[in-house]
Write a structure and sequence with these properties.
globular; about 45% strand; 23 strands; 4-stranded antiparallel sheet
């Protein structure tokens, strides 16, 4: 019976409706293309910032040399490429977040560091010791994502470490908390902090003091890679792997109490063709999602809650 159980085929993929993406967005100049697209965020003006691994794939052990091509692209809301920078800086860039002052925060899991840049790409702050892994006030363990509260920068740390680390906007360590199995993303709203506890296939919800108030498991046992509040306590999650460890890209909407309202498949056709990785929401309501395996960032709109 044990042998039969081990050889049983995995359950079928979750059957979900698909959502159309805007195939005309963004406009990438001739001769330019995305590598693995790992991060996306939107600034106060609606400009979309995309982080990608130009010409580099995730392979371990990580290489030592920085990516020689630009890794940060800035697009206008209509998809026009406005700027690109980041050449020769990052080894394995992971997350990008824009704070209220328009500063650009980027995590690099190979360098074990978190960086703050000006919007023009001037490096202003470096946190962590390059290449050194530790869970303490001065180091990280493959930091993944960044979010912001007043006077606090929250760092999802990460693939090796098991915490959220808090620092001041100038990098002074404040505290750390949580116990996660790959803290892959962190997001906030007016009252809550949301953490994608990826390998535990759940979302952990805290108050702003760091007290755990709820835990939401994916109804399909999927791994949440990114999440963003939608308002009124609702949350949009991007799931990159299903419960059988098959890559994909699923958007799931949770109600304020944690009940799953709806879910949509936004992946490319074919097994492992997509790996949903990061999310952003523009001031106009557009959703932006990155797809590592598909080498793309897509723009889409959620159906209205009255749509059938």
């Amino acid at each position: 019976m044990s042998i039969a159980a081990c050889s049983a085929p995995p359950p079928p993929r979750e059957e979900l409706p698909t959502l159309a993406v805007d195939t005309g967005w963004p406009t990438i100049p001739a001769g330019t293309k995305f590598g693995e697209v790992s991060g996306v965020d939107v600034d106060a003006q609606g400009n979309v910032w995309v982080l990608h691994r130009a010409g580099r794939k995730w392979e371990e052990p990580f290489p030592k040399e920085p990516i020689p091509e630009p890794t940060v692209f800035k697009f206008s809301p209509d998809g026009t490429l406005l700027a690109q920078w980041g050449a020769g800086v990052f080894v394995m860039p992971h997350g990008i977040s824009i704070d209220a002052e328009g500063k650009v925060w980027i995590t690099d899991v190979a360098r074990e560091q978190v960086f703050r840049f000006s919007a023009e790409g001037r490096q202003e702050l470096t946190l962590g010791e390059q290449g050194v892994t530790a869970q303490d006030a001065a180091h990280f363990g493959r930091p993944a994502d960044v979010a912001f509260l007043l006077g606090r920068v929250l760092i999802a740390d990460g693939y090796v470490n098991t915490r959220v680390a808090e620092v001041s906007p100038e990098g002074a360590f404040i505290r750390d908390w949580g116990d996660f199995k790959v803290a892959h993303a962190v997001a906030v709203d007016e009252t809550r902090i949301y953490v994608a506890d990826r390998e535990n296939a759940r979302i952990q919800i805290y108050d702003h003091g760091g007290k755990l108030v709820a835990s939401w498991a994916s109804p399909a046992g999927n791994h949440t890679y990114a999440l963003k509040p939608l308002g009124d306590g609702r949350v949009l999650a991007l799931e990159g792997r299903d419960g059988a460890d098959r890559n994909g890209a699923v958007l799931r909407i949770y109600a304020a109490g944690g009940t799953a309202e709806a879910a949509y498949d936004i992946g490319l056709p074919g097994d492992d063709a997509s790996l949903g990785h990061d999310l952003a929401i523009g001031p106009d309501g557009h959703i932006y999602a990155t797809d590592v395996n598909g080498g793309r960032v897509v723009r889409l709109s959620l159906p209205s809650r009255s749509d059938k």
